[in-house]
Amino acid sequence: MISDLKPLNPIPPLSDDKRWMRLALLMAARAQARTAENPPVGCVLVSRGGQLLATGMTGRTGRPHAEQSALNKCIDFPERLKGASAYVTLEPCAHHGQTPPCAGALLSAGIGRVVYSVGDPDSRVDGCGHAMLEQAGVQVESGLLQDKARDIMARFLFSQNWKRPAITSKIALSSDGFVAKQRGQQTWLTGLTAKTFVHDLRSRHDGILTGIDTILSDDAQLNCRLAGDAGDSPVRLVMDSRLQLPLESRLVQTAKQADVLVFTRPDCDSAQRQALEAKGVQVILCEPIKDGRPHPEFVADFCWKMGLYSILLEAGPTLNKAYFDAGLVDKIVELIAPKKLQSGYAGYSPSQISQPSMAFTAGADYIKSSEQALAEDRLIIWHRTEKYASGA
User: Fold this and answer.
1) What phi and psi, each to the nearest 5 degrees, are found at residue 46?
2) Which of 91, 158, 235, 324 is deepest in the core (most CB within 10 A)?
3) Distance between CA 297 and CA 294 in Å, rounded?
4) Best mean pLDDT range from 118-122, 151-155, 166-170
5) Which residues are 88's β-sheet partners?
6) Is 48 left (phi over 0), alpha (psi -120 to 50) or beta?
């Protein structure tokens, strides 16, 4: 596939190009997990004289595409598009789907130059958009800020390349490696800035997955509670091998407003199953692994088939380790608080130092890709080495 090779036409580090592409990436980031089955793409149109003409991003249903969204804003001054530049985070499509090809729309508008970040791995595109534009005389360049674009479009790239959801594990730890004072007890570790970050992170995923212990310990809602983001809460997923989810829990009480799926064993309590389903909970029966929990690979495959392409794993160490052991965690978001608990329930983490039995093995294939402060807390991002290049 062309998209897996080096950029077709690597671009030099021009400051204006980077500036406009950063704006396109900002638009793409705003569309994350809000574009149905299509990728979150950003587009910026700039006149020949270097003036911003319009911005666009993929619509909430996946349509219009980012390029068409930006072009639609120029309907009253089409002459200014002649010879203009388009900065797009993904190679413009070249096939007729539910909408005409974006490469064709850019050509019809008279765009003279197209810069995009990442090649489209969809077999219907994969270099065809690049070729269509270039053959028509448009200057085409690729690869600008591609790592950031791949990170934003991780769910789409996974849907094309790995045939399963991209799974991110969010782990909050004390500075000495504990997640709580004791198992089953809620312990607040991080500050307000980190909590805001987590709710924004939730809004950028299709599903959020946890274990029943988390629900029982703090009656978790698993939703996004930032102002203006309530409609962007992900599908809520619970691993519950003994079907213990309380009927009076906030999760069940809101199941008819936002989807709740519970994965459990085929021999679960039928009366409890019927009671949960009457409340709007979807109970999914799946074969357990040897310790009795639903199999992580079954859950991942089920989510993939129902169109959930990015999953945020917010769970305790046991469930986290099960997904790591299954090779299903592609990205780790660690939030490390400055406080120490001295003792308690140890977290399973690449930064674990005080509890060696809960640290990643020396051969764990993750790289630290960034580290920064979030007020008093530290944010560390890790990626699976072999999947980093494809945007996990």
Assistant:
1) -130, 130
2) 91
3) 9
4) 166-170
5) 43, 116
6) alpha
* 161: enclosing H helix or E strand: helix 154-161
Q: Helix (H, G, I), strand (E, B), or coil: what is residue 116?
A: strand
| Per-residue model confidence (pLDDT) at position 255 | 93
DSSP 8-state code for residue 162:
T
H/E stretch holding 24 reads helix 15-30
Place of tokens 């096939």: 95
Tell whether the model's pLDDT for residue 240 goes beyond 70. Answer: yes
The set of residues, in sequence order, having a beta carbon less than 8 Å from that of 376 and lying 6+ positions away, is 191, 193, 337, 338
Q: What's the CA gap between 15 and 237, in Å, rounded?
A: 44
Residue 37 annotated in active site: no
Which amino acid does the sequence have at 233? Answer: S
Phi, psi torsion values for 207, nearest 5 degrees: -145, 155
pLDDT at 117 exceeding the cut of 90: yes
Q: How far apart are the first and last CA of the chain?
A: 18
List the one residue out of 216, 169, 212 whose CA is nearest residue 347.
169
Q: Give the 3-state DSSP-derived string for 174-237, with helices as H, strands as E and coil as C.
A: CCCCEEECCCCCCCCCCCHHHHHHHHHHHHCCCEEEEEHHHHHHHCCCCCCCCCCCHHHCCEEE
pLDDT at 1: 38
Query: Would the pLDDT of 290 be above 80?
Result: no
CB 337 within 8 A of CB 189: yes
| Catalytic position from the list 67, 141, 314, 334 | 67
Residue 289's contacts (CB-CB under 8 Å, 6 or more residues apart) are 295, 296, 322
